[in-house]
Design a protein that fits this description.
Length: about 625
């Protein structure tokens, strides 16, 4: 950093960084700051370079931690940045490129230092480092000023109030990244944090009034999917050789930064993800998920979760109830379109789950859509390619289907939507099939995969629950879907046939089947009684044929009993009343134990330009590679 740096590896030797972290106090008005904020090293463009930047930052931080109690330079750096943010909006309107560029660089330095500080010390120690001033060793400000809280509030205001232009895109992304870093102390604790200084800042005091505005801004950033400006064209125009130093440096740095954005660069594990086209949307969504999943304070519910669960459509003119202090309005059509288009990422699927489960306005709107196939098909594709997805992504996709199938209107309408040429379904050519039949095929395929590979009982139970919810509305099933249901049912009847050996078979075929089904339901086989009871009358002959292929005395007895009661193998079953159970998704008592590690694993793997040493991570297990 500063005009003489040439590479990341040289940073610990850089004279400006050495002065910042050294024993000399630097005044807020010193020209040094303008020199420090004039970057000249190429921005990191890979996880390897981000790791090098982290290691270089650690070296600088060690010196700063030792000397800052005497110099107060961290506080001075923060105050210089804060003074600049107050003029940022006007600078954007006036197209003051140099001012915005240097302000971004100041924030980048703070973010790098803050990330290492949070990893290496407690929040209380961090708070003290922002309070030290140039006095005797270890002295700090005696007034009520809390620079750490002021910095966080400044970031919130920067995100919500700065107009999004080519020249402000970069600093907007950096501000969101800095907020993620602010909250990253969770990464270094095995247990979910119930109390935190940063949480208190966000849920109380001057940050609280910005809650709904921040959530709305982050959501619109996700919806709009704004791409970064073309490399090297948004900050300064190209300069001829010998042009001003700052102009030439800015162009090179801009090019490097946009390379980071297009590569995704935070972790090699994210390489399998689709190409990142909008770093602003990506960072915004990650920050939103982190905020929504913060734990409630002892006396204050999470206001960001309140905002996400209560916002409504811009076309809804009804007044907000007083019990929803952070409610706002957003365009549901735009939100729906973005959610449909972005389901290839874990974080977009998690957002969809959050909205469907917790925001009744969004759920009602989505279930009333006449183009639900645009939302359901991407979810089915996630489940179909289960081998390529992580288990959490598959689980969220399945829970979304379960929530949708709780609605009878959805279960009816999906059989009326006819799809043409589903190319990603490779087991069989499907030139024409209803959305409902395709959903059945994919869920049964997921069940079979789970039984042979993962053997996850929760995944199995939720698959069966979704099918059971739909079963009462099965209509005009595709022949292949009906075949798969019967085949699956018979496979499990044969698997648990030993249970029937202990049963007494009365003459009534209905009680026989129900007894059989209720016995199997203890093993999660609700599908047998619920699904088959609605299709058995239509496919009785096929079922008898499949059952009789198993030469087992008990099955033969059951089959003969059924046929004897009907009088003919082709006769329809009488219209007996089978139980119609409905399954409803309910979160565990402490959902944060699952969601907080999941969200931070997404941040670790998907955040743009942020790197944490995997050896420092305590919240979740790291892969061996």
């Amino acid at each position: 950093m500063g005009a003489n740096s040439s590479s990341i590896s040289d940073l610990p030797k850089n004279e400006y960084l050495k002065k910042l972290s050294g024993t000399e106090s630097i005044s807020e008005n010193d020209p040094f700051w303008n020199q420090l904020f004039s970057f000249s090293f190429p921005a990191p463009t890979s996880s390897t370079e981000l790791k090098l930047l982290e290691e270089a930052t650690v070296s600088v931080c060690k010196s700063l931690v030792e000397n800052n109690p005497r110099t107060g330079n961290l506080g001075a750096l923060t105050k210089v940045f804060l003074s600049r943010t107050r003029e940022l909006r006007l600078s954007a309107e006036c197209q003051n490129h140099i001012f915005i560029w240097q302000t971004h660089n100041a924030l980048f330095i703070i973010c790098c230092l803050l990330k290492v500080f949070i990893c290496e010390m407690s929040e209380e120690e961090l708070q003290l480092h922002f309070m030290y001033e140039e006095k005797s060793p270890g002295s700090y400000s005696s007034n009520s000023e809390d620079l750490l809280e002021e910095l966080l509030c400044s970031l919130v205001q920067l995100i919500t109030d700065t107009p999004l232009l080519d020249i402000t895109y970069e600093i907007s992304v950096e501000a969101i990244s800095a907020m993620v870093v602010f909250l990253s102390c969770q990464l270094f604790h095995k247990e979910v944090l119930r109390q935190s200084i940063s949480h208190k800042y966000l849920m109380q005091g001057p940050c609280l009034p910005y809650t709904s505005k921040l959530v709305k801004t982050l959501l619109y950033n996700f919806i709009r999917q704004e791409k970064p400006p073309p490399p090297g064209t948004h900050v300064f125009p190209p300069q001829s050789d010998g042009g001003g130093l700052l102009y030439g440096l800015a162009s090179g740095v801009a090019t490097g930064l946009w390379t980071v954005f297009t590569l995704g660069g935070a972790s090699s594990k994210a390489a399998a993800s689709p190409e990142l086209t909008s770093p602003l949307a990506n960072q915004s969504l990650l920050l939103l998920l982190v905020l929504v999943n913060l734990t409630d304070a002892p006396d204050t519910p999470n206001p960001y979760r309140q905002a996400v669960t209560s916002f409504k459509n811009t076309q809804d003119s009804s007044p907000f109830p007083s019990s929803m202090p952070h409610a706002f309005q957003i365009n549901f059509n735009s939100l729906y379109t973005a959610l449909c288009e972005q389901q290839t990422s874990d974080q977009a699927t998690l957002l969809l789950y959050t909205l469907l489960h917790q925001n009744s306005n969004v759920r009602t709107y989505m279930l009333a859509r006449t183009d639900m196939e645009n939302l359901v098909l991407p979810i089915l594709e996630i489940l179909y390619h289960v081998e390529e997805r992580n288990s959490h992504h598959v689980y969220m996709a399945l829970i979304i289907l379960l929530i949708l199938t709780e609605d009878d209107g959805f279960n009816r309408s999906i059989h009326e939507v006819i799809l043409k040429n589903i190319t990603w379904y490779s087991e069989r050519v499907l030139t024409e099939i209803s959305l409902g039949s395709l959903l059945i095929l994919v869920v049964i395929r997921t069940i079979q995969y789970n039984m042979t590979r993962t053997r996850d009982k929760y995944l199995h139970t939720n698959c069966l629950a979704a099918l059971a919810n739909m079963s009462a509305q099965f209509r005009s099933l595709h022949q292949y879907a009906a075949q798969r249901i019967i085949s699956y049912t018979c496979r499990h009847l044969r698997r648990y046939v030993y249970v029937l050996d202990k049963l007494y078979f009365p003459h009534s075929h209905c009680s026989t089947l129900q007894h059989c089904f209720s016995t199997l339901s203890d093993n999660g086989e609700e599908l047998l009684s619920l699904t088959c009871s609605h299709i058995l009358r239509s496919y009785a002959s096929s079922l008898f044929s499949l059952l009789s292929k198993k030469h087992n005395k008990v099955l033969e007895q059951a089959t003969q009993s059924l046929r004897g009661s009907l009088g003919s193998s082709d006769a329809p079953l009488p219209d007996y009343k089978f139980p119609e159970l409905k399954f409803k998704y309910v979160e565990e008592e402490q959902p944060e134990e699952f969601f907080i590690p999941y969200v931070w694993s997404l941040v670790y793997n998907s955040a743009v330009g942020l790197y944490w040493n995997p050896q420092d991570i305590q919240l979740f297990a790291m892969d061996s590679d």
